[in-house]
Amino acid sequence: MRYHQVWDPDQQLEAIKDPSLLTGKPPVVITIDDGYRDFLDVAFPLLKARSLPATLFVTTGFIDGRLWFWWDRLAYLLAGAPPGNLTLEFLDRRISFDSSDPHQTNRAWNTIADYLSIQPDHLKEKVISDLASACGFSLPQSPPIDFAPLNWEQIMTMAQSGISIGAHTLTHRVLSRVDPAHSWEEIMGSRNELEKMLDKKVGWFCYPQGGPDDYLPETADQV
Protein backbone atom coordinates (compact mmCIF):
# COMPACT_ATOMS: atom_id res chain seq x y z
CA MET A 1 0.00 0.00 0.00
CA ARG A 2 1.14 3.55 -0.69
CA TYR A 3 1.07 4.96 2.83
CA HIS A 4 0.83 1.93 5.13
CA GLN A 5 1.96 -1.65 5.51
CA VAL A 6 -0.74 -4.18 6.38
CA TRP A 7 0.04 -6.48 9.28
CA ASP A 8 -1.81 -9.33 10.90
CA PRO A 9 -2.69 -8.98 14.62
CA ASP A 10 0.25 -11.14 15.71
CA GLN A 11 2.70 -8.76 14.03
CA GLN A 12 0.99 -5.79 15.64
CA LEU A 13 1.18 -7.41 19.08
CA GLU A 14 4.88 -8.10 18.67
CA ALA A 15 5.47 -4.46 17.70
CA ILE A 16 3.59 -3.30 20.80
CA LYS A 17 5.93 -5.45 22.88
CA ASP A 18 9.00 -4.36 20.90
CA PRO A 19 8.64 -0.86 19.35
CA SER A 20 11.92 -1.35 17.47
CA LEU A 21 9.90 -3.47 15.02
CA LEU A 22 8.00 -0.34 13.94
CA THR A 23 10.10 0.52 10.90
CA GLY A 24 9.05 1.86 7.52
CA LYS A 25 5.46 2.78 6.75
CA PRO A 26 2.95 2.92 9.64
CA PRO A 27 1.22 -0.45 10.08
CA VAL A 28 -2.52 -1.07 9.89
CA VAL A 29 -4.54 -4.19 10.71
CA ILE A 30 -7.61 -5.12 8.64
CA THR A 31 -10.46 -6.67 10.64
CA ILE A 32 -14.01 -7.61 9.67
CA ASP A 33 -16.71 -8.52 12.18
CA ASP A 34 -19.64 -10.93 12.39
CA GLY A 35 -19.36 -13.25 9.37
CA TYR A 36 -21.53 -11.88 6.57
CA ARG A 37 -21.50 -13.62 3.20
CA ASP A 38 -20.58 -10.39 1.40
CA PHE A 39 -17.09 -10.61 2.93
CA LEU A 40 -16.49 -13.69 0.80
CA ASP A 41 -18.14 -12.18 -2.28
CA VAL A 42 -16.61 -8.70 -2.16
CA ALA A 43 -13.68 -8.20 0.21
CA PHE A 44 -11.96 -11.59 0.18
CA PRO A 45 -11.15 -11.61 -3.59
CA LEU A 46 -9.65 -8.11 -3.30
CA LEU A 47 -7.55 -9.04 -0.27
CA LYS A 48 -6.38 -12.27 -1.86
CA ALA A 49 -5.44 -10.56 -5.14
CA ARG A 50 -3.25 -8.10 -3.21
CA SER A 51 -1.89 -10.68 -0.73
CA LEU A 52 -3.16 -8.56 2.17
CA PRO A 53 -3.69 -10.22 5.57
CA ALA A 54 -7.02 -9.75 7.33
CA THR A 55 -8.82 -11.14 10.35
CA LEU A 56 -12.47 -12.19 10.33
CA PHE A 57 -14.10 -12.14 13.77
CA VAL A 58 -16.95 -14.63 13.68
CA THR A 59 -20.17 -14.61 15.69
CA THR A 60 -20.59 -18.36 15.59
CA GLY A 61 -24.36 -18.42 16.17
CA PHE A 62 -24.77 -16.40 12.97
CA ILE A 63 -23.09 -19.01 10.78
CA ASP A 64 -25.39 -21.18 8.67
CA GLY A 65 -28.30 -18.86 9.50
CA ARG A 66 -28.87 -20.03 13.08
CA LEU A 67 -29.09 -16.40 14.23
CA TRP A 68 -30.52 -13.33 12.54
CA PHE A 69 -29.19 -10.12 14.10
CA TRP A 70 -31.84 -7.78 15.49
CA TRP A 71 -30.49 -4.73 13.61
CA ASP A 72 -30.76 -6.61 10.31
CA ARG A 73 -34.32 -7.66 11.11
CA LEU A 74 -35.09 -4.00 11.80
CA ALA A 75 -33.59 -2.98 8.44
CA TYR A 76 -35.59 -5.69 6.67
CA LEU A 77 -38.81 -4.52 8.31
CA LEU A 78 -38.31 -0.86 7.44
CA ALA A 79 -37.29 -1.65 3.87
CA GLY A 80 -40.46 -3.70 3.41
CA ALA A 81 -42.84 -1.27 5.11
CA PRO A 82 -45.85 -0.03 3.09
CA PRO A 83 -44.79 3.01 1.01
CA GLY A 84 -45.87 6.43 2.21
CA ASN A 85 -45.96 8.33 5.48
CA LEU A 86 -45.56 5.93 8.38
CA THR A 87 -45.66 6.47 12.14
CA LEU A 88 -44.19 3.81 14.40
CA GLU A 89 -44.45 3.67 18.17
CA PHE A 90 -42.05 1.63 20.26
CA LEU A 91 -41.52 1.63 24.02
CA ASP A 92 -41.69 5.33 24.97
CA ARG A 93 -40.75 6.60 21.50
CA ARG A 94 -42.59 7.62 18.36
CA ILE A 95 -41.10 8.17 14.92
CA SER A 96 -42.63 9.33 11.63
CA PHE A 97 -41.02 9.06 8.21
CA ASP A 98 -41.77 8.57 4.52
CA SER A 99 -41.00 4.91 3.91
CA SER A 100 -40.82 5.49 0.15
CA ASP A 101 -37.78 7.74 0.69
CA PRO A 102 -34.60 5.63 1.23
CA HIS A 103 -32.86 8.48 3.06
CA GLN A 104 -35.71 8.91 5.53
CA THR A 105 -35.93 5.15 5.99
CA ASN A 106 -32.21 4.99 6.73
CA ARG A 107 -32.51 7.82 9.26
CA ALA A 108 -35.42 5.99 10.89
CA TRP A 109 -33.30 2.84 11.11
CA ASN A 110 -30.47 4.79 12.74
CA THR A 111 -32.81 6.40 15.26
CA ILE A 112 -34.49 3.14 16.26
CA ALA A 113 -31.26 1.10 16.24
CA ASP A 114 -29.42 3.63 18.41
CA TYR A 115 -32.23 3.49 20.94
CA LEU A 116 -32.53 -0.30 20.90
CA SER A 117 -28.78 -0.82 21.22
CA ILE A 118 -28.93 0.16 24.90
CA GLN A 119 -32.06 -1.85 25.70
CA PRO A 120 -32.10 -5.37 27.19
CA ASP A 121 -32.54 -8.26 24.79
CA HIS A 122 -36.17 -8.98 25.68
CA LEU A 123 -37.16 -5.38 24.86
CA LYS A 124 -35.31 -5.53 21.55
CA GLU A 125 -37.30 -8.63 20.64
CA LYS A 126 -40.58 -7.03 21.74
CA VAL A 127 -39.96 -3.94 19.61
CA ILE A 128 -39.03 -6.01 16.55
CA SER A 129 -42.19 -8.09 16.98
CA ASP A 130 -44.37 -5.00 17.45
CA LEU A 131 -42.85 -3.27 14.42
CA ALA A 132 -43.41 -6.36 12.28
CA SER A 133 -47.09 -6.25 13.23
CA ALA A 134 -47.25 -2.51 12.52
CA CYS A 135 -45.64 -3.02 9.10
CA GLY A 136 -48.08 -5.81 8.34
CA PHE A 137 -45.86 -8.79 7.59
CA SER A 138 -43.99 -11.66 9.22
CA LEU A 139 -40.24 -12.04 9.36
CA PRO A 140 -38.64 -15.07 7.69
CA GLN A 141 -37.11 -17.60 10.06
CA SER A 142 -33.59 -17.11 8.69
CA PRO A 143 -31.72 -14.18 7.12
CA PRO A 144 -32.58 -13.42 3.46
CA ILE A 145 -29.79 -13.11 0.92
CA ASP A 146 -29.06 -9.42 1.63
CA PHE A 147 -28.26 -10.34 5.25
CA ALA A 148 -26.87 -13.82 4.64
CA PRO A 149 -24.07 -15.28 6.77
CA LEU A 150 -21.15 -17.38 5.70
CA ASN A 151 -21.23 -21.12 6.26
CA TRP A 152 -18.53 -23.22 7.86
CA GLU A 153 -17.18 -24.54 4.58
CA GLN A 154 -16.64 -21.00 3.32
CA ILE A 155 -14.93 -19.95 6.55
CA MET A 156 -12.63 -22.97 6.43
CA THR A 157 -11.76 -22.24 2.79
CA MET A 158 -10.81 -18.65 3.60
CA ALA A 159 -8.84 -19.75 6.67
CA GLN A 160 -6.84 -22.10 4.45
CA SER A 161 -6.23 -19.17 2.08
CA GLY A 162 -4.63 -16.96 4.72
CA ILE A 163 -7.52 -15.20 6.44
CA SER A 164 -7.09 -15.23 10.22
CA ILE A 165 -10.20 -16.21 12.18
CA GLY A 166 -11.04 -14.76 15.59
CA ALA A 167 -13.90 -15.21 18.05
CA HIS A 168 -16.73 -12.67 18.35
CA THR A 169 -19.06 -14.40 20.87
CA LEU A 170 -21.89 -16.83 20.24
CA THR A 171 -24.74 -14.36 19.75
CA HIS A 172 -23.18 -10.85 19.67
CA ARG A 173 -24.46 -9.92 23.12
CA VAL A 174 -22.90 -6.82 24.67
CA LEU A 175 -20.82 -8.38 27.42
CA SER A 176 -21.09 -5.50 29.89
CA ARG A 177 -24.84 -6.17 30.05
CA VAL A 178 -24.77 -9.86 30.94
CA ASP A 179 -23.71 -11.63 34.12
CA PRO A 180 -20.24 -13.22 34.35
CA ALA A 181 -21.55 -16.74 33.68
CA HIS A 182 -23.23 -15.70 30.43
CA SER A 183 -20.23 -13.60 29.44
CA TRP A 184 -17.97 -16.63 29.89
CA GLU A 185 -20.37 -18.78 27.87
CA GLU A 186 -20.39 -16.25 25.02
CA ILE A 187 -16.60 -15.92 24.94
CA MET A 188 -15.60 -19.54 25.39
CA GLY A 189 -18.48 -21.00 23.40
CA SER A 190 -17.48 -18.98 20.36
CA ARG A 191 -13.80 -19.83 20.64
CA ASN A 192 -14.43 -23.52 21.29
CA GLU A 193 -16.75 -23.87 18.31
CA LEU A 194 -14.26 -22.16 16.01
CA GLU A 195 -11.40 -24.33 17.22
CA LYS A 196 -13.49 -27.46 16.73
CA MET A 197 -14.54 -26.52 13.19
CA LEU A 198 -11.16 -25.17 12.08
CA ASP A 199 -9.07 -27.76 13.96
CA LYS A 200 -6.65 -25.06 15.08
CA LYS A 201 -6.13 -22.71 18.00
CA VAL A 202 -8.01 -19.40 17.91
CA GLY A 203 -6.04 -16.74 19.74
CA TRP A 204 -7.93 -13.52 19.02
CA PHE A 205 -11.21 -12.17 20.34
CA CYS A 206 -13.20 -9.05 19.40
CA TYR A 207 -15.79 -7.52 21.75
CA PRO A 208 -19.26 -6.98 20.23
CA GLN A 209 -19.69 -3.26 19.47
CA GLY A 210 -16.20 -2.72 20.89
CA GLY A 211 -16.78 0.55 22.74
CA PRO A 212 -15.29 1.32 26.17
CA ASP A 213 -18.69 0.75 27.80
CA ASP A 214 -19.28 -2.60 26.09
CA TYR A 215 -17.10 -4.69 28.38
CA LEU A 216 -16.01 -4.66 32.01
CA PRO A 217 -12.66 -5.30 33.71
CA GLU A 218 -14.07 -8.71 34.68
CA THR A 219 -14.84 -9.38 31.01
CA ALA A 220 -11.28 -8.52 30.03
CA ASP A 221 -10.04 -10.95 32.68
CA GLN A 222 -12.20 -13.69 31.16
CA VAL A 223 -10.83 -12.99 27.68
How are the secondary structure elements laid out?
Blueprint: E1 5-7, H1 9-17, E2 27-29, E3 31-34, H2 37-49, E4 55-58, H3 70-79, E5 85-90, E6 93-98, H4 102-116, H5 121-135, H6 152-160, E7 164-167, H7 180-198, H8 217-222
Parallel strand pairs: 1-2, 3-4, 4-7
Antiparallel strand pairs: 5-6
Helix pairs in contact: 3-4, 3-5
Characterise the protein shown here.
By secondary structure, this protein is of the alpha/beta class. It has 2 domains: about 5-65 and about 150-220, TIM Barrel (Alpha-Beta Barrel); about 70-135, no CATH class. About 45% of the residues lie in helices and about 15% in strands. The chain contains 8 helices and 7 strands; from the N terminus they run E-H-E-E-H-E-H-E-E-H-H-H-E-H-H. The chain has a 3-stranded parallel sheet with strand order 3-4-7. A two-stranded parallel sheet has the order 1-2. Helix 3 packs antiparallel against helix 4 and helix 3 runs parallel beside helix 5 (about 120-135). It is globular. It starts with a strand and ends with a helix.
